[in-house]
Amino acid sequence: MFSAPDFQQLRQTIGRCTSADVEQALSAGTCDSNDLAALISPAAEPYLPVMARRSALLTAQRFGRTTQLYAPIYLSNYCTNRCAYCGFAVNNKITRRCLTLDEAEAEAAILHERGFQHILLVAGEAEKIVGVNYLEAIALRLRPKFAAISIEVQPLSTAHYQRLFQAGVTAVAVYQETYDQEMYQQVHLAGNKKDYHFRLETPARVAAAGMREVGIGALLGLTDWRAEGLALGLHLAWLRKNFWSTAVTVSFPRLRPATGAFAPLVPVSEQNLSQLIFGLRLFDPDVGLLLSTREEARYRDGMLGLGPTRYSAGSCTAPGGYSSADQTEGEQFSVGDQRTVEEVSLAIAAKGFDPVSKDWDSAFQH
Amino acid sequence: METLKATEELVRAGFIVLPYMNADPILALRLQDVGAAAVMPLGSPIGSNQGILTAFQIEIIIAQARIPVVVDAGIGAPSHAALAMEMGADAVLVNTAISVAGDPVAMARAFAQAVEAGRTAFVAGMGSRSKQAHASSPLEGTLAADLGFLS
Ligand code: SF4
């Protein structure tokens, strides 16, 4: 099993990196974890434009001049956990809702109409409300319409992941949020999610179940983003070595300062986020890198082709949001890029890239 | 495919299996999955002394494997063994080149030194090779992307 990295040691490794280490990493044909540490260290900051260029070339080589598009469907905002940074936490007094199968299908129909072939089903962690039977039923209904169905729900068992794969789920995202065990305990105040290790071992269960893709990630803004990035790299490399036939993606949801919401404990700038994205691309040319609508349109447009491979678009982060008039009530986080999928597609095309709605087909799964 | 089937059966029967194989990266992963204790890709046809002609494939095999990679077959000179070790192989397997040498004992010693040199170079971290000349200060004049959009 992938064992929890010693976070302090990661910080020290990164802190020791010099510009000579960065130049060595940039001139090496392949990057190991020491090179990644150098690339995301403060010593690499002056090299950001060079890293960006290298990252862009590798991304084009491996993924072509394309950007994949997906949209989330929020199924439910019930949650039994108390995560300090989340609007769905059990202690928050919000209107709770879980979509019926028909309502979920109606949301999916709207997205399908807009041209999406890849959807991400998101739910708070409430096993009794959003259990494996519910998810299986939704996947079976949606599979004829979509090429790829990802889920982002509570950690499940390998057997449950196998069932969902059979039902048409192609990918599972489960973010560690933070690899720093101390910080993890500080922000996960109640519920099953308090178990750091069970969560850490979840991506391996996903891959062992034969899922086509597993998504890992960290919530940037809780602690030292550089050490978080190195931990992500180590987790990624471990998954690659142990589950070569499952693809891996990485997400970097960034906490943004917002009134009334949980403020980032450590600021992470766009510069920082970019450095992490370029570093991971150089470290693993094949990894899928996601950039969601949490980020602003200006930043997302600027990053097109430089490293990220998949963008969400036209997202609504409240259950039933696509069908309802008020799209912001009960949402998990506020969206930074409000554009419609057509507008995002045009922006992608304007940069000379193809917006693509699928890289998989359910026919491959049988 | 027969190698894969044989490995699977022998592992099931309790053997420690070290399959000699074509330098095929996916076959190496599948052998690993069915329980091979190491994979032994060939450098060039067995007994041919031609050296490492499958370097690109062997590099991929080494990068992906969780089990030891032993480069087997085709290694005809100490320099070939050194190259395999510089690439990160865990070991080389040599027979013909030593057994047909004028002085097999001296040749074996030469191979041992080459293996040691190659391994040391790998651990020390090799600079990358390129078909084009580079300024020796590597990053000057390197193309850079415009990041003016960052806030
Ligand atoms: S982050 Fe997830 S588990 Fe935590 S409170 Fe929000 S929805 Fe629940």
Describe the protein.
The complex is a heterodimer of chains A (about 375) and B (about 150). Chain A is of the alpha/beta class and about 375 residues long. The model of chain A has no long low-confidence stretch (mean pLDDT about 90). Chain A has helices at about 5-15, 20-25, 35-40, 50-65, 100-115, 130-140, 160-165, 180-185, 195-200, 200-210, 225-240, 270-285, 295-305, 340-350; strands at about 65-75, 80-85, 120-125, 150, 170-175, 190, 215, 245-250, 290, 310, 355. In chain A, helix 12 (about 270-285) links the parallel strand 8 (about 245-250) and strand 9. Chain B has about 150 residues and is mainly alpha-helical. Chain B has one domain (about 1-125): Aldolase class I (TIM Barrel, Alpha-Beta Barrel). Chain B has 6 helices and 4 strands, in the order αβαβαβαβαα. Chain B has helices spanning about 1-10, 25-35, 55-65, 80-85, 95-100, 105-125; strands spanning about 20, 40, 70, 90-95. In chain B, the strands form 2 sheets. In chain B, strands 1-2 form a two-stranded parallel ribbon. Chain B has a two-stranded parallel sheet with strand order 3-4. Chains A and B meet through helix 2, helix 4, helix 11, helix 12 and helix 13 of A and loops of B. The structure holds iron/sulfur cluster. Iron/sulfur cluster binds near residues 83, 88, 89 and 124 of chain A.
